[in-house]
């Protein structure tokens, strides 16, 4: 008898001439949280789809609790106790939590749903994931994203899950919501559930995982206890080589492109004063809710400040809309790209050029297809977007490449000021390296760059200057030589050095 809950051996999968997986292995024991990591395209998603019954392996075997099984469909996987919870909750927003729980698998008495029979099991699962039973009657749309994630997990456990796959569960959550998620994961592991946890946020793995399995180029590279590795070692295994220490080597800054004086937005931030110069990357860092993200919205004209002054290239006229900001040379990469940045079912070329159609028009209302192709091809090449065709829909791309497409749209005309909100959120370590290098190259070419991020490693790696927010105010300005501990101490309120280390 084996002590392993799941064993996947010698799994391979081809799509035409492309080897998505080459002889991959995966093992996990009962009550274990195993982190599965790898770059986009490393084979993680394909391996998980095979386990979940959404794809079929060309070779290999799968055993659960020592017994070899055949998974030909998602129904087979569910019957074997395998459940998957995806990054964005797959719930019916206008139905109640109770209705979402049992949709398609209602307990009935004749032609009528037996709510009394359904309730005890649902309430037990809501208790298990830490949700108040009163949410059962609420439409899902009234719940926070974290609560919806908890509902999705509880719903997955309705079928007595033995193996739970969590696919990027923390990517859209705040830190407090992540803490709730981790509490649920630990509770489930304590109940004996085996959890496969997929994430690009390597630092968080050390808070939740027992083991980490690394995939690269469709193969399993390693599988080790999490305590035997560092973030850097995991990242280097993912990319197959040593990571560089940083992308910024020399900085030559010019005149101030952006100046904020006493900027205030009631309920978000107050009395914010700083500047960003041409050729400089300024990083705004703060814990979620500290106010840094709201500054970006105001600078791009998405929200109007209560008071204070914004000057762009010395011009203090109000930025009353994104269109007004664009006319002054400001471009922004939004944090919520799924709703604000991507036309997912449109082509790459469409997504790159849609914001600059006037430049591609010879006559009013007529867009030159040749100009569109040339512009899209130029930026695809410049940003090293991996795609077989500019006509490919963005929905078919990896997260890192889709991110580059949204960034490319901001570069059709070289911006004087580029505002980047969470520029590498949800992308793998390789794509993160590439995007950081693109940002650095833009600054070297004279663009003023404002990077707003909650990623501590990122702000230290990319910035020439770091401005730390706390409770809606600038708490300190720090040099990029500051340590992670120093930046966190300021952001969390453990240090009152208003001048910082700049």
Keywords, separated by commas or semicolons:
502 residues, 3 domains, alpha/beta, 25% strand, Rossmann fold, 6-stranded mixed beta sheet
The named CATH superfamily of the largest domain: P-loop containing nucleotide triphosphate hydrolases
How many strand units?
A: 23
Contiguous runs where pLDDT drops below 50 for at least 5 residues: 495-502
**Arithmetic mean of pLDDT:** 84
Rg: 24 Å
Describe this entry's structure for a reader.
The protein is α/β, with parallel strands linked by helices and 502 residues long. The protein has 3 domains: 6-239, 3-Layer(aba) Sandwich (Rossmann fold), CATH 3.40.50.300; 245-329 and 413-502, Rossmann fold, CATH 3.40.50.300; 345-411, no CATH class. It has 17 helices and 23 strands. It has helices spanning 44-52, 74-79, 97-102, 115-128, 145-156, 175-190, 202-208, 231-239, 292-299, 322-327, 337-340, 348-353, 369-382, 399-409, 429-444, 456-462, 484-492, and strands spanning 6-15, 18-28, 33-37, 59-64, 67-69, 82-85, 108-109, 112-113, 163-167, 194-198, 211-216, 219-225, 256-265, 269-277, 281-285, 307-312, 330-333, 361-363, 366-367, 417-421, 448-453, 465-470, 473-478. α4 packs across α5 (145-156) and α5 (145-156) packs parallel to α6 (175-190). It is globular. The termini are far apart. The model is unreliable at 495-502 (pLDDT under 50).
